[in-house]
Amino acid sequence: MSGSETSVVVENLTKRFGAFVAVDSISFQAHRGEIFGFLGPNGAGKSTTIRILCGLLRPTSGRALVAGVDVARKPETVRQQIGYMSQKFSLYNDLRVIENLRFFAGLYSVPAKVLPARLAWALHMAGLEGREQTPTRDLAAGWKQRLALGCAVLHRPPIVFLDEPTSGVDPVSRRQFWELIQQMVGEGITVFVTTHYMDEAEYCNRLVLINRGRIVAMGTPTELKTRSMKGQLLLVECEPLGPGLEALETAPGVLDSAVFGSSLHAVVADAQAAMPGIREALEARQVRVGRLEQIPPSLEDVFVSLTTGGEIKPGRVA
Length: 318
Known about the structure:
Elements: E1 6-17, E2 20-31, E3 35-39, H1 46-53, E4 61-66, E5 69-70, H2 75-81, E6 82-86, H3 97-107, H4 115-126, H5 141-152, E7 159-163, H6 171-186, E8 190-194, H7 198-201, E9 206-211, E10 214-219, H8 221-227, E11 232-239, H9 241-250, E12 254-260, E13 263-268, H10 271-284, E14 288-295, H11 299-307
Parallel strand pairs: 3-8, 3-9, 6-7, 7-8
Antiparallel strand pairs: 1-2, 1-4, 4-5, 9-10, 11-13, 11-14, 12-13
Helix pairs in contact: 3-4, 3-5, 4-5
């Protein structure tokens, strides 16, 4: 990753719809050749921000530069410098694979002299060689996803915006899709991505968490997990879980608790000080206690902690 070049610069960006503030004076930078994650619950302002950065929506105030171009002043120029892919896969199901690629090549004004090479590159990247004549409607979701990405980057843009690109796709296809993203980043392309999958957020070089139009945290995945958690996290393995959860809700020192898989998570101000009281509260209700130890928070823990407006509800994703 090259930190010396900024692909996206956002300064005090604001977007209002009447009295409603969708994006509230946010600022950040994304650098060339990095995966920049943009996370937040539904309605947080993610899609509005991306629409502004893609030149599709004019900001109310503030400034945004994409590939050095002011999105408010030259939106058409911006759209030629970027690739865009959403969760809805903007493909034409009635067209064949090669016809979709040719159609998007025309939209992006790919020169005729380089078109054959670009088509061959996109087919190879997406793993669709030999499927050129397949009707798009007959492709599985994972293959449609790859085709949509190929269509979005045919013109070899320096910046690609991916808005929930893997929604509804199986885990194997998601992993393969992220391998393609890593290849693009290795070529110096900036990938700006929104996702609800916390495992995907771990792939990002840096993350911004936005809630109610405002940035609530920014940093690498490691930085967010080590400095953004509200309280300390305890893993509680016990049986049965239901009475165990009830006991935690009134245990001394517990700020919040919830089921997390086959165990419980408890948020406390001081892990070491809280553990004896927690064990006592569980045993008082005839709950058998196994492991009881402090654990590092996951991105999911941090995400929910910072976007629910209160204390963390472990194990839940908005």
